[in-house]
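Objective 1b: paired records.
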Amino acid sequence: MNPSPVTIYVYLLDEGTDVWRPVEAVHSGDDRYRITSMNVDRSDEHWQFSTGDIVRCSRRVLSGGPAMVAHERVQSPA
């Protein structure tokens, strides 16, 4: 059985202001999530974490309300 994707938020680098991109991820246990979304506009958006990375997330309040935000890479894809 495949876990259902959830939405987490990844920080965008080089934006001049704080910008968070919603991406799909799969819960990997505890506070860890594996990013499954692809960055289709790599020339314009520089994500702090990449597709396949396992990241540690914590709950944070963004402009749209509470969200799970990636704040640390735990593991990169092999």
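Objective 1b, second protein:
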Amino acid sequence: MEAQKRLKSLDLLRGFDLFLLIMFQPIMLVLLNHLHSKIPVLFPTLFDHVTWKGVGFWDLIMPLFMFMSGITIPFAMSRYKSGGEKTDRHFYFHLFKRFFILFFMGWIVQGNLLCLDIHQFAIFSNTLQAIAVGYVVAAILYVKLPLSGQVGFAAFFFLLYLIIFATFGKMDYSSGTNIAEQIDRCVLGRFRAGMSWEGGVVVNLWPRYHYTWVLSSLNFIVTVMLGSFAGYALKFGDSPKKRLKVLCITGVVLIVAALAMSPVFPIIKHIWSSSMTLFYGGVCFLLMALFYYVVDVKEFTGGIEWLKYFGMNSLVAYCISEVVSFRSISNSLFFGLEQYMGEFYPLVGVCFQAIMTLLIVKWLYDCHIFIKA
């Protein structure tokens, strides 16, 4: 298999991530919310984030998005690194255009920009914005530095986060008082997610909101760079066997390192802690290895090839699912089913939302339209 060949596995893994977010989780949450009183053994927490410390299935979704954005860097940027194209103002214009588009779309998706109310606006609060920060730094470092230099910078960002927590943060990893949340409150102020104005006074609308973005950006960069290193192995590995070996060994090492760190530096997704970065980075390496082996090496898709509709227009799929509601259409067409479905009627709206999103990205794929930042 040629290393230059497009990775079908990456498209399908990205599509799988979006499938979980757009279709699987919403449908399962509706089912579990109505069934848990009848069947207590079902765990709706499987589809929600961990309250604070620890690992959970749903906490993988965001790191996987970011990791996969990094994988594309060696494939998209090699022409600049090799000198085939100059890293002139056009290169930086393209790079920062991507940054601003992703940041702007993050404002639309989760920054409440569409409210047209400055009191409800959040500056930094979305996965797309975290990708924007990580991607622009990782891409510049990839083009300008050899692999050893990139690893050095990734280690620098990783250690700087730890040092800030160990010194200014006094090793306080408690929710509400840790240094990452203090920095967000100081830098973002009333424009921090969860804050709003009532009667001229800034109030916290979400007292349990503990996600952080400013200091966490150091490890956002590391997460994207880990993806870039995986992309490097996939593009320049001598053979599929060696590529798989690198992905698997790296994944296992990262997970073991994270678990070894966790008693002192706990795994906390809300603040994107360093051990969390390593743990989910390792899981992402192993998932990429699995999909690469099955899809690209064995050329087996097992009926999941339709995931490419999500994967090859991931920005469109994500934004449509988060911003556009098709449920008013669903209620207009299928309201008669409520008398027969009872408490399960919300499933109709959830499924209709997911199917409409799928049909749109499939239509884009069939028309060979691929919208990227």
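Residues 259 and 275 are 7 Å apart (CA to CA). The beta strands are 195-198, 201-204.
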